[in-house]
Amino acid sequence: MNEYTFPIVFGVFIGVVTRLYLLKTDYRQYPTYLHGKIIHIALGFIAAGLGTIAVPAIMEKEFAAITFLALAASQFRDVRNMERNTLNELDQYELVPRGKPYIEGIAIVFEGRNYLVIFASFVSTLAYLVWNIWAGVIASIIGLLVARKFMSGSRLKDIVDIEYVEPHFEGAGLYVDNIYIMNIGLPARQKEILRYGMGFILKPKNFNARSTIANLGQRQAILHDISTALGVYRDSGTPALVPLAKRDLDDGRVGIFILPQEKDIEKAKTIIGNVPTLENAIRMPTKSEANKKGRKLR
Amino acid sequence: MTHEKLILAVITTNSNKIAGGAPIFTCDTREEMESVATNLEAILDGIAHSLSDELLIIVKH
Question: Which residue of B has its CA nearest to A183?
């Protein structure tokens, strides 16, 4: 026991609490219960330890110890690889796959959260050692709030208006509003699709959103999330029953065609609205120098 | 060489208009054509697309 024992225990504790707080298992059921979680809690513990130890190291003028943090960076990059590999493997067996950009987004988040844990542990230990435990508690609350702020990205409802449209056929062509989805040759399939299918139109609120929802990964993420939440009328060997999202080339609207098992318009709208906008899909054409001048983009 | 999309079979009631590489199934009626296509769809794991009233193709996506 020395003067650093309690601050270190405190810092590690706060770090692990932060990791647990960021590790909510929601409708996506990922990470899966228990084993997947334990990996992340263990890594969170290591991250918390690294963030905490940095403070006494500085105070003892052991500056070389800070290089440990470089070690941490490579360690957590492996977390990203691990998540990416696992999810890619699993994705092949999903009825409606997540798609690579969604997986990449999840993997980045898992890496990023460990750094947030390091940050939370660092500030709380620092405040404890510089002032007292109460300052440490306040610092850890601030750390948690910052972590939460960085954790939550924007959602689809922030960038698009969602409207329900009954899908219909023109000949063999399946349409959602005026957006062509696909060609279905068999009348039996067409009947099934009209019976179970639902159509939604996503209308981008601005020019930036138009590019974001055009991203194929973003569209696949929408289809995956909604199929997870409402079920999907599909099996292997029925390739015609496939949820799809297609784009209206004229105005950038996206037509979503889904086959849920639970046909509830309001629920579906809420779920689509809560789909995360993928970091990898966000584009900001309006920030381009050329676009700032002249006619405003809409 | 890998194929992104591939016509696995052609089902038709008018064989005069068809020629080429994919297996061709000639049927007498539209009903027969549809039942053949339904079976092939399940067997081949492809989607039946209709190009005209007398022509269906099974495509692997």
Answer: B49
Q: Which residues of A83-120 are buried (b: 16+ CB within 10 A; e: fewer)?
A: bbebbeeebeeebbbbbbbbbbbbbbbbbbbbbbbbbb
Asked whether the beta carbons of residue A239 and residue B61 sit closer than 8 angstroms, the reply is yes
The domains of chain A are located at 5-152, 157-284
Q: Which domain holds residue B51?
A: 6-60
Q: Does B27 touch chain A (CB under 8 A)?
A: no
Residues in B closer than 8 angstroms to A188, CB to CB, are 34, 38
Residues of chain B neighbouring A172 (CB-CB closer than 8 A): 49-50
- Would you say residue A162 has pLDDT above 70? yes
Residue B33 in any domain: the answer is yes
Tell me how many degrees the CA angle B27-B29-B33 measures, rounded to the nearest 5: 55
Tell me: the pLDDT tens digits for A223-238? 999 999 999 999 887 8
Kindly tell me if the per-residue pLDDT of A48 is higher than 80.
yes
- Whether B47 contacts chain A with CB within 8 A: yes
pLDDT, tens only, B21-58: 889 999 999 999 999 999 998 888 889 999 988 899 99
ipTM of the shown complex: 0.85
